[in-house]
Design goal:
single chain, globular, Rossmann fold, mainly alpha, 62% helix
């Protein structure tokens, strides 16, 4: 938990904050919600402690939007069966079920920040739904659909 957050603190300090100050949109493929899902929900670490350490590491910086590509665990395993697996992917189905439940619990607690997409759909439909959610947020931030299109 501390190693993940030490790395995250450096990322926030060296990359994210400076880009946000310059008006750049920042996209991360993992952030604090992943730590909560994996370390808190799946590994059973105290959720309040995980949130507290995340908050220290990020200085309270929270995403405007979190996209969750949700798929039943068994189907996700079937899709990845012939690929190399990292240490998280080598965990059993029960572990991944707890991760998924953690993500869905987080999404339900803050629905205005989360976009949950059924990842059993086609790649094209998933891409369309992701772009729809992202572009809607960008219009809110930038104030113009024209700027988003550019």
């Amino acid at each position: 938990l501390l190693l993940f957050n030490a790395s995250r603190a450096q990322l926030v300090r060296d990359v994210i904050e400076s880009n946000l100050k310059n008006g750049t949109v920042v996209i991360c493929d993992r952030y604090t919600d992943s730590t909560v899902a994996y370390q808190g929900y799946a590994r059973g670490l105290d959720l309040e402690e995980v949130h507290r350490i995340n908050n220290i590491a990020t200085g309270g910086l929270c995403p405007d939007l979190t996209v969750l590509l949700d798929i039943p665990v068994e189907e996700g395993f079937a899709r990845k069966k012939n690929r190399a697996q990292d240490r998280f992917e080598q965990e059993d189905i029960a572990f991944h079920q707890r991760v998924r439940e953690g993500y869905l619990t987080l999404a339900a607690a803050e629905p205005e920040r989360w976009l949950v997409i059924d990842a059993r759909q086609s790649r094209g439909e998933i891409a369309r739904l992701v772009w729809s959610g992202v572009s809607r947020l960008l219009v809110e931030i930038l104030g113009s659909e024209k700027q988003v299109a550019e």
